[in-house]
Specification:
The protein is α/β, with parallel strands linked by helices. The chain has 7 helices and 13 strands. It has one domain: 3-Layer(aba) Sandwich (Rossmann fold), CATH 3.40.50. The structure holds glutamine. Glutamine binds next to strand 9. One of its GO terms (biological process) is 'de novo' IMP biosynthetic process.
């Protein structure tokens, strides 16, 4: 199988593009970083790729709100080609700021006739929060999370709270299996507020998929945990036994799943 080609989109202020491209390469993809202006000049460049990733960072300085400017650029100029991209069976991943961007593009299918079912907004405590969290996955149709049950990953965000509009919107999203990642306590039990839920997200939601399962947006950073030794407690875990320092970090599974989808 030829390595799937992944476009890692960057814009002014993106800062996770190198690591994210490397994560896809480690998983067996051919990843390329591309400035959004190149794509705006020539949307047909998308035809050469099987997956698109909007990585983390501070695109356009988080001006107006995080992801808004890049999200608007994509929504206004690239909606049609990207919808076709997804409907052709290709994959789209948004990590942290990339998720904030995806929410604002409309590509996640989280709108109804009354407007957005959910959005990303400021953490409840109003501060930037950067640390590790525990997550439960309920992959359903989500390609990136196939076979994943639990994850430990870093977060680093200020506007990372998934705020769902109302109970009916939450029912709609949960009944369609769209909330595929939830913050949990360390043993996998339900998070009951801060700190297990780091931002006050409705229903502990940390990641959403679209209706096809081929678009995923998540606030935690899978590209920051590719190797076992990236875990802050890897030496203690190794001493306690059952932790292989040569092994994969939890985040690599998402990139491997993306690659094997094309296998
Ligand atoms: N790590 C990131 O992608 C940061 C996202 C965004 N700039 C925020 O602070 O919410």
């Amino acid at each position: 199988m030829p390595a799937p080609r992944v476009l890692v989109l960057r814009a002014p202020g993106t800062n996770c593009d190198e690591e994210t491209a490397e994560a896809f390469r480690l998983a067996g993809a051919a990843a390329e970083r591309l400035h959004v202006n190149r794509l705006l000049e020539n949307p047909a460049l998308l035809d050469g790729f099987q997956a698109l990733c909007v990585p983390g960072g501070f695109s356009y300085g988080d001006d107006i709100s995080a992801g808004r400017v890049l999200g608007n650029q994509i929504r206004l100029a690239l909606s049609e080609p990207l919808r076709k991209f997804r409907d052709d069976g290709k994959l789209v991943l948004g990590v942290c700021n990339g998720f904030q961007v995806l929410v604002k593009t409309g590509l996640l299918d989280i709108e109804d006739s009354a407007g957005p079912l959910a959005t990303l907004t400021w953490n409840d405590h109003g501060r930037y929060e950067a640390r590790w969290v525990h997550l439960n996955a309920t992959p359903g149709e989500c390609v990136f999370l196939r076979g994943v049950e639990r994850l430990e990953l870093p977060i680093a965000h200020a506007e990372g709270k998934i705020a769902v509009r109302d109970d009916a919107a939450l029912d709609a999203l949960t009944s369609q299996g769209r909330v595929v990642l939830r913050y949990s306590v360390a043993d996998g039990g339900e998070a009951k507020g801060f700190p297990a839920n780091p931002n006050g997200a409705t229903a502990n939601a940390a990641g959403l998929t679209d209706s096809t399962g081929r678009v995923l947006g998540l606030m935690p950073h899978p590209e920051r945990y590719l190797f076992a030794t990236q875990h802050p407690q890897w030496t203690r875990k190794k001493a306690a036994g059952g932790y292989d320092p040569q092994g994969d970090g939890d985040g690599l599974a998402l990139f491997r799943n993306a690659v094997s989808y094309f296998g």
